[in-house]
C-alpha cells in the first residue's frame, strides 16, 4: 500500500517508544513523521532512535504541523482529554491511550469535539484488533460451548517498587482499574455484546502509593444473569487471562491481552487448541484506524464505545472507594 497516514506522537512514554511507534512503522498504512516532548533533547533523542524525521520541543508545535494527519497520545491519564481536544481542534485525527479519559463526562466531551470537527477519535485497546476475538465470538455464537454462564478475566503485574511512577499519582488518574482493569472490562463488553447493569468492586487502597487502588477484584452484572468476575493489580504477579464459561464447555485464553494469541476450547469431546496468527496488535490497530479515517471501513468500535467503557470504570471506582454495589 503506497498511501500512508502521517502520524505525530505527543510524548515519549514507554508504551509509545516500545510498542505503538514501532507498530505504526511496521503497519501497512502508517508512518510516524514527528514526535514532541516538553524537552527538545528528549524528543530529538527519541526521534533519532526510532528514525522519526521531525522532533518538537512542545506539544503545541506538533499540532501546527500541516504534514501530520493523526496524533497518538500516550500522556498520563489526566492529560488525555486536554490534548485530545486540542489535537482535534487542530484538525487531527486522534488515537488516545486507554483509559481515554478520567471519567465518562470527559470522554463525552472528547467524542462531541471529534464529531463537531469531523475527525476520527479512537481509544487504544490494541488487543481488540487481533482476529482471534472474532473467532472467539464465532465459537460462542455457534453454540459449541452452550449457553454462556459467566466470564472471568485478570490482568496483573508488579511495579509497586517504582514509587515515582505516574500510575501512583491519584490526581493524574493512577490506579490499577484505570491502568489494567480497563482490559477485562472492555473485553467482557466486547465478547458478551452488552453493557453491565451493576458493579461491585473491592480494592487494596495503598497509602504509600498516594491512595490509588493497587489491586482490585470485582463483579460486573450483565443482562441474562451473566457476570464477569475480574481482578486487576499493579502489586501482584503477572498474568493476563480470559475464560468464557458455557453450559457445555469453555474457552480459555491464557494470554488474553499480550503474548501468545493461541487459545483453548474445552467441550465434552475434549480439548482443542485454536492456533492463531502471530500478528503485531499495534500494527493492526494502526491499520484499522487509518482505514476508518479513509472511510474504507466503518470501524470496529465507534468513539461512543469509549464513553460506555468509562461509565463502567466510573462505577467500579465509586464501588471500590465506597465499598458499595453501584447500579448503572
From TrEMBL:
Domain GFO/IDH/MocA-like oxidoreductase spans what residues?
133-252
Signal is among the record's keywords: no
Write down the superkingdom of origin: Bacteria
Example GO molecular function: nucleotide binding
Organism expressing this protein natively: Paenibacillus baekrokdamisoli
Which InterPro entries does the record match to this protein? Gfo/Idh/MocA-like_OxRdtase_N, Gfo/Idh/MocA_domain, GFO_IDH_MocA-like_dom, NAD(P)-bd_dom_sf
- Which residue ranges does the record assign to the Gfo/Idh/MocA-like oxidoreductase N-terminal domain? 5-122
The family note in this entry says: Belongs to the Gfo/Idh/MocA family.
Keywords in alphabetical order: Oxidoreductase
Oxidoreductase found in the keyword field: yes
Pfam families from the entry?
A: GFO_IDH_MocA, GFO_IDH_MocA_C3
Q: What is this protein called?
A: Deoxyfructose oxidoreductase
